[in-house]
Specification:
This protein is of the alpha/beta class. The protein has 19 helices and 7 strands. The protein has a 5-stranded mixed β-sheet with strand order 4-3-5-7-6, sandwiched between helices. Helix 1 crosses helix 2, helix 2 packs across helix 3 and helix 3 packs parallel to helix 6.
């Protein structure tokens, strides 16, 4: 939802409104914590088609990703059907429905590699490949490993045309600085990397290793063996980039289990592997046929079982994900509609935007939102008392979820805040349970 909010912010240049009593800003729009590339691309879709536009963009980008990867595979003599491995990857099936940076980043990685491969016969394509490669900076910084290592490999091979990549890459970097200067809340050199960069460390190492094995051996069949067995064009560079990218996210300080066991497969480390999935699909188009020819070449019955089983699995998983996500989205819509039936557009909502921002935001007409976490804890009671004197309609809206320890701790934080202001609240306006263990509680300040 943040990407759509930023797109609307870019489109209508909405100014943040300062609330002097609480010394905070109304959370009508967030300050961007991610690179702006995705929001920029979905802006025209939002303008033309409203709230459904960004989701159309996501669908088109996923289709383009599979097509471009298929073209890349075919241009190297492989079977383009291996591009279907992309759609079968569970995090892509889920996040491909959402306007987020993962799929556009994967698309740029695949397009950049295709142009780089073809650039050996047409160096002008290397100029475009360099631009596409560094444009990744506007989407997901870690994926810059691919154009960077391909560029270094080109220099080490003494290819005299490397400057085509260099000039194109510089244009992509200039674009990043222009975007920062003209559209960002930050300065031209500020926030070059995500503002919520969590860094690297050993804190989640065992968790990340397990999820990486699950994602790249099972969710993407045998993908983890590719950087060790692939011996096609530019194999040193491609294998090195894949391995370094995997190592980066194995060390990434992100708690994948915050969404629960099932959620960890989609929103955890497997999600961060999406940008390398087209590369793994390309490598599989070379690695797997070699393995197949060695062990199963004369076993046509086994071949048919695997092929038809693969097609059936894709169809079943696609419909299952669509059904599940539609049910999940419907529960969030129900929560949002219940809030709108209680809270008027001119009301002030005090909440914890950690999760509620998906339902309480500017897109849905809520413009006067205060995150209680941004109010100085030592002065919270006095400031809220003064807030009550200035504004008539003030509501406390808490939305709880309990699928992991992370969210249970957030629930405790919310309950502590409710307890700290309980003397200023009327009786609870509503408390209702929803699907997926979500609970909405709404109080009005007296």
């Amino acid at each position: 939802m943040n990407y759509i909010l930023i797109a609307k912010k870019l489109l209508y240049s909405d100014i943040k409104i300062y609330e002097p009593i609480t010394d905070t800003y109304f959370q009508g729009f967030p300050t961007e914590t991610y690179p702006l590339g995705t929001s920029i691309l979905i802006t025209p879709f939002y303008y033309l088609f409203g709230i459904k536009g960004p989701y159309l963009f996501s669908l088109l980008t996923q289709i383009a990703l599979i097509l471009i990867t298929g073209i890349w595979i075919r241009s190297s003599g492989g079977n383009p059907l291996f591009a279907s491995l992309i759609f079968a990857y569970a995090p892509i099936q889920v996040l491909g429905r959402l306007p987020m940076s993962d799929i556009p980043t994967a698309f740029l990685v695949s397009l950049g590699c295709l142009l780089f491969w073809k650039g050996y016969s047409n160096k002008n394509l290397w100029l475009i490949a360099g631009f596409v490669g560094t444009s990744i900076f506007l989407f997901r910084e870690a994926a810059l490993l691919f154009p960077l290592i391909l560029f270094i490999g080109t220099i080490l091979k003494n290819n005299k045309k490397y400057y085509y990549l260099l000039y194109g890459g510089l244009l992509g970097l200039i674009l990043k600085f222009i975007v920062n200067y003209t559209l960002s809340d930050y300065g031209i050199f500020d926030n070059l990397f995500s503002a919520n960069n969590l860094g690297l460390g050993m804190g989640y190492l065992s968790q990340n290793i397990i999820l990486t094995i699950i994602s790249l051996l099972f969710l993407f069949p045998l993908g983890l063996i590719n950087p060790f067995l692939y011996r096609g064009p530019n194999y040193r560079e491609l294998n090195t980039a894949v391995l370094l990218y995997i190592i980066f996210y194995v060390l990434y300080q992100w708690n994948s289990m915050r969404g629960g066991i099932l959620g960890s497969i989609v929103t955890g480390i497997p999600r961060f592997m999406i940008p390398i999935i087209p590369v793994l699909a390309y490598q599989s188009s070379i690695v797997l046929p070699n393995i197949w020819g060695k062990y199963f070449n004369n076993k046509k019955r086994i071949s048919k079982i695997i092929i038809y089983g693969w097609i059936t699995l894709n169809i079943i998983s696609g419909f299952t994900v669509h059904w599940y996500m539609n049910k999940y989205s419907s529960s969030l819509t129900e929560i949002r509609n219940d809030i709108k039936n209680i809270v008027t557009d001119d009301s002030i909502i005090i909440t914890n935007t950690n999760f509620s921002e998906k339902m309480i935001n500017n897109i849905y007409g809520f413009k006067r939102i205060i995150d209680y976490r941004h109010i100085d804890e030592n002065q919270r009671e006095n400031k809220i008392n003064n807030l009550r004197k200035k504004y008539d309609n003030i509501y406390l809206v808490i939305i709880q979820r309990s699928e992991s320890q992370y969210w249970r701790e957030i629930n405790n934080l919310d309950l502590q805040f409710v307890d700290s202001v309980k003397n200023n609240l009327t009786s609870i306006v509503t408390q209702k349970k929803y699907a997926f263990n979500k609970v909405l509680s709404v109080w009005r300040f007296n």
